[in-house]
Design brief:
single chain; alpha/beta
């Protein structure tokens, strides 16, 4: 495992905890809002846990393309007609955007799960009637435990690719650049290498 991948075992642990909470298994279908680093990681973990369909939504085309290269079975823009009439075993929000959360919850099949990972508005108006009538399990992810052995195995076995997410590299002298500048749409994770 590379040093970049080792540094990204922490966000991978978030993805593992989220997929475990949703109890994803063989043949399940997953919808993920957001194709940033967490969305891309959740897509890979869901596939590793056996999900047959992993659909990712994101407004940025480059991120949608990257999500498919990393294992999503499909990627589309939010509100795309390709989602019309479809339901999923689980929904994962990696955006924090209220509209994405509401839309995703309404696409969860009866008895499924909606996992909110993204940190967004403090208060959201959720579709309670849908949640209740479809018995959707809505929960969040903020902490995790006992994920490291699984994370290491997923990377070492090649089931999850973290190296591709390390898109931008800086030496220690340039460490302020990724903190100061707005990242490009193709940026996933910026890595600082003290030896450079």
């Amino acid at each position: 495992m590379s040093f970049d991948a080792a540094a990204l075992l922490e966000p991978l642990s978030v993805g593992i905890a989220a997929v475990r909470k949703a109890r994803i298994g063989v043949g399940d279908s997953v919808l993920i809002a957001g194709a940033g680093p967490i969305g891309a990681i959740v897509a890979q973990v869901a596939r590793a846990y056996g999900a047959a369909a992993v659909v990712v939504t994101d407004p940025v085309e480059q991120r949608r393309n990257a999500a498919v290269q990393l294992g999503a079975t499909e990627a589309c823009a939010p509100g795309d007609a390709a989602l019309d009439g479809r339901s999923f075993t689980a929904f994962f929000d990696a955006t924090g955007v209220t509209a994405a959360v509401v839309d995703g919850i309404k696409r969860v099949e009866a008895g499924g799960s909606a996992i909110i990972i993204g940190m967004g508005d403090d208060d959201m108006l959720l579709p309670v009637a849908y949640i209740t009538s479809h018995e959707v399990n809505v929960t969040g992810i903020f902490r995790y435990n006992n994920t490291w052995p699984t994370a290491i195995e997923l990377v070492a076995s090649g089931k999850v690719d973290l190296d591709t997410l390390a898109t931008d590299h800086y030496g220690l002298a340039d460490a302020e650049i990724p903190l100061r500048d707005k990242p490009a749409p193709t940026t996933f994770k910026s890595m600082v290498h003290p030896q450079r």
